[in-house]
Amino acid sequence: MAGMKAAACLVLMFAAAAHAQQERAVSESVADFRSVRDLIVRAAEKMPETEYGFRPVAEVRSFAQQIAHIADDQYNLCAPVKGQPRKDAYRAIENSLKTKSELVPELKRAFAYCDAAYEAIGAPFAVVPFGNSTRTKFSMLNWNVWHTWEHYGNIVVYLRVKGIIPPSSEKR
Hints:
By secondary structure, the chain is mostly helical. The protein is 64% helix and 5% strand. A two-stranded antiparallel sheet has the order 1-2.
């Protein structure tokens, strides 16, 4: 009997430790999302309207297209976590908005949409449909984090080429 109680205690301890690790992973992902979200919004605000059509070379997206792509993917990657279909086409924003005055507010709306997914993730390892497969909610949100950081790295180059200090390099 004592052995069964000890085994039950160990199971509960391991379950509690696993749950604590899951909570930590989620909270760190949320913090990373908020960091990159804020940097991208600041970068979009710093780039002059006249430079939104700029592209370092012809083969890459313009600055406006980069911002639009980031906004599109907030919906594309957070909708499954929220249990919602994406209402618009995959590249709806990228294919329709071109100016700073259009894109900055839309970028903020897209990030607010994702904020709600991060804040109400619920069961992070619940499986959600994505395309022709499935992923966990945590995987979807983590994908959004690294993908958004990837594009922040892209737009840093655009800012630097134009002589603009990226938000992440500003003096604090």
